[in-house]
Design brief:
By secondary structure, the chain is an alpha/beta fold. The chain has 2 domains: 6-22 and 217-412, UDP-n-acetylglucosamine1-carboxyvinyl-transferase, Chain, CATH 3.65.10.10; 25-214, UDP-n-acetylglucosamine1-carboxyvinyl-transferase, Chain (Alpha-beta prism), CATH 3.65.10.10. The chain contains 12 helices and 22 strands. The protein starts with 5 loop residues before the first strand and ends with a strand. The structure holds shikimate-3-phosphate and phosphoenolpyruvate. Shikimate-3-phosphate is lined by residues 26, 74, 148-150, 153, 175-176, 179, 292-293, 316. Its EC number is 2.5.1.19. Its main location: cytoplasm.
């Protein structure tokens, strides 16, 4: 859906500001599935305003035969497992892009457990017809760990509700590992124990227990504010509310990454203060295997700060909201920066070669990917910007542009 582009005025120095941040869509979508599987009352506080979470809330209540997840990966994957065990006959569909995002490994795993699921268009991809699980066939199954951790989280959340429980063997490299840990931590909070030893996770049949849970602010959303802090001039502080030092979200890895790029984090009981410090010298190595959603933020900051960096762990980026590698390469070229693969899995970020791009308005395409819009927005500290389809941010952070205005940045729609 094309909309008018958003003009962002060049603003090198931001106002001192407090950014409320949305709460985590990853935590919210897990909490909602657990609540749906729990027969006691679960009180969920501070659920995310993200479209992905609002879609999950709506679809869990829906009586419709066809459920449309739009572009929400976790909603698609978690509902596939949830509907299978709750014996609901539903069709699950999504956007054109969702129909290109693979789901075969999860469907195979659920079929191995005994679920009946059919592909309605292309083998291995949504839309799916879910017919439910009548009798559990296998207790022990294996699944690759290197494609999407969301398949694993989906299986884990339904595992205690299976008549015989589940023994899951993860094969190959495990990507996005903190998201798996988050799933198990949230399950433990609602009374379900799991045993995770190396590549094997065992969950006995057991019931979720009612509890209340307050969702933390979203660390992936926080990363864009770290980027503003790293690129702006002046000593004004940015305060990010609702973030915890002992977070369950792996994207709090942004704290360490940005420390070497010149942003210190001071934790307070109600959030974190971002304070400018001198950046470390030299070239940087960043591994995004555990935190793929930070790759776009870091690529833009390294490019604009003129820092050459070596990136690994980008494998999953090609199957997200867009092919994020291709999107990054195209947009970084507009600021004379490059992201190139030197050997398989090893990427080099060559920073901006010149500053010519700062002289004119920089047009950024967003590829129906919220993270492209938010990762490039901090470049308004360097040049006038124009962001295509700014409403893409609604997927995870509907208040993003309002928060940008709070930082003293002028927007024109
Ligand atoms: O489980 C989750 O909440 C998520 C897991 C990650 O996906 P992958 O496991 O596919 O890398 C991440 O990129 C996504 O934004 C959210
Ligand atoms: C990859 C993402 O989301 P999902 O896979 O849940 O669509 C994301 O939010 O960056």
């Amino acid at each position: 859906m094309a909309s008018k582009a958003l003009q962002i005025t060049y603003t090198p120095q931001l106002k001192e500001c407090t950014i409320p941040l949305p709460s985590s869509k990853s935590e919210s979508n897990r909490a909602l599935i657990i609540q749906a599987l729990c027969s006691d009352t679960c009180e969920l506080l501070n659920l995310s305003p993200a479209r992905d979470t609002q879609t999950m809330i709506r679809l869990l209540k829906s009586e419709d035969e066809t459920l449309d997840v739009l572009d929400a990966g976790t909603t698609m994957r978690f509902l596939t497992a949830y509907l299978s065990v709750s014996r609901k006959m539903k069709t699950l569909t999504g956007t054109d892009r969702m129909k290109q995002r693979p789901i075969g490994l999860l469907v195979d795993a659920l079929r191995n457990v005994g679920a009946e699921i059919e592909y309605l268009e292309k083998e291995g991809f949504p839309p799916l017809a879910i017919k439910g699980l009548h009798e559990q066939s296998n207790i022990s199954i294996s699944i690759r760990g290197d494609v999407s951790s969301q398949y694993i989280s989906a299986l884990l959340m339904v595992a205690p509700c299976l008549p015989k429980g589940l023994h899951l063997q993860l094969t190959g490299k495990i990507g996005s590992r903190p998201y798996i840990a988050m799933t198990l931590q949230m399950m433990a909070h609602f009374g379900v124990q799991a045993d995770w030893q190396e590549n094997e996770i065992h969950i006995a049949p057991q019931a979720y227990k009612g509890n209340s849970y307050t969702i933390e602010s979203d660390w992936s959303a926080a990363s864009y504010w770290y980027a503003f802090a790293a690129l702006k001039e002046g000593s004004e502080e940015i305060f990010l509310s609702g973030l915890r030092k002992d977070s369950w979200q792996g994207d709090n890895a942004i704290v360490g990454m940005m420390h070497i790029l010149g942003v210190a984090s001071v934790f307070q009981p109600d959030g974190v203060r971002l304070i400018p410090i001198p950046a470390r010298q030299g070239e940087f190595h960043f591994d995004f295997s555990d935190c793929p959603d930070l790759a776009q933020t870091m690529a833009v900051v390294c490019a604009a700060k003129g820092r050459k960096a070596f990136f690994t762990g980008l494998e999953s980026l090609r199957i997200k909201e867009t092919d994020r590698i291709a999107a990054l390469q195209t947009e970084l070229a507009k600021i004379s920066a490059r992201l190139e693969e030197s050997q398989e899995g090893q990427w080099t970020l060559f920073p901006c070669e010149n500053e010519d791009w700062k002289k004119e308005t920089l047009h950024i395409a967003t590829y129906e990917d919220h993270r492209m819009a938010m990762a490039f927005a901090p470049l308004c500290t360097q040049a006038n910007l124009e962001i295509e389809n700014p409403e893409v941010v609604n997927k995870s952070y509907p208040g993003f542009w309002k928060d940008v205005e709070q930082a003293g940045i002028h927007l024109t729609y």
